[in-house]
């Protein structure tokens, strides 16, 4: 290879490299930004999905709480009244000496007016 050819090849390589950088760099910068935006979007996407899942779980928890309340109410109804609830109310005996029993301010017996007429 002739000795004059080496400096010419070095100059050609430098010119091609500078031209390549001058052409590719303006194209590469927006591509890098685009890729960075895509990466950030992918990283944030699970956070949004987790928020939706969290909200759905809260709704399910509320509905489950209502179902538990209804179930306990149903079980209480199904168990039926206790013997204490079935027993007639205990009335205090009439006071001695013929004194009238306790009455309310309206003059009626405690517990309100009787719905059954006196027989």
Folded structure, characterized:
By secondary structure, the chain is an all-alpha fold. It contains 2 helices and no strands. The radius of gyration is 46 Å and the shape is rod-shaped. It starts with a helix and ends in a 33-residue tail after the last helix. 0% of the residues are buried.
Integer-rounded radius of gyration = 46 Å
Number of helices: 2
Order of helices and strands: HH
Overall mean pLDDT stands at 80
Shape, principal axes of CA atoms: rod-shaped
Strand count, sense and closure of the main sheet?
Answer: none
Strand element count: 0
Q: Which stretches are poorly predicted, pLDDT < 50 over at least 5 residues?
A: none
Going by helix content, strand content and strand pairing, the class is mainly alpha
User: What percent of residues are in strands?
Assistant: under 5%
Helix content: 55-70%
The CA-CA distance between the termini, in Å, is 141 Å
Helix/strand layout:
Elements: H1 5-79, H2 83-86
Features:
66% helix; 119 residues; 2 helices; single chain
Give a brief description:
With 119 residues, the chain is mostly helical.
């Amino acid at each position: 290879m002739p000795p004059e050819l080496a400096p010419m090849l070095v100059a050609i390589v430098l010119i091609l490299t500078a031209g390549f950088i001058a052409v590719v760099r303006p194209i590469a910068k927006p591509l890098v930004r685009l890729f960075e935006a895509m990466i950030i979007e992918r990283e944030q996407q699970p956070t949004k999905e987790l928020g939706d899942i969290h909200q759905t779980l809260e709704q399910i928890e509320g509905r489950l709480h209502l179902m538990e309340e209804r179930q306990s109410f149903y079980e209480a109804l199904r168990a039926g009244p206790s013997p204490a609830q079935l027993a007639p109310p205990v009335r205090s005996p009439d006071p001695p000496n013929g004194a009238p029993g306790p009455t309310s301010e309206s003059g009626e017996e405690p517990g309100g007016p009787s719905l059954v007429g006196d027989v």
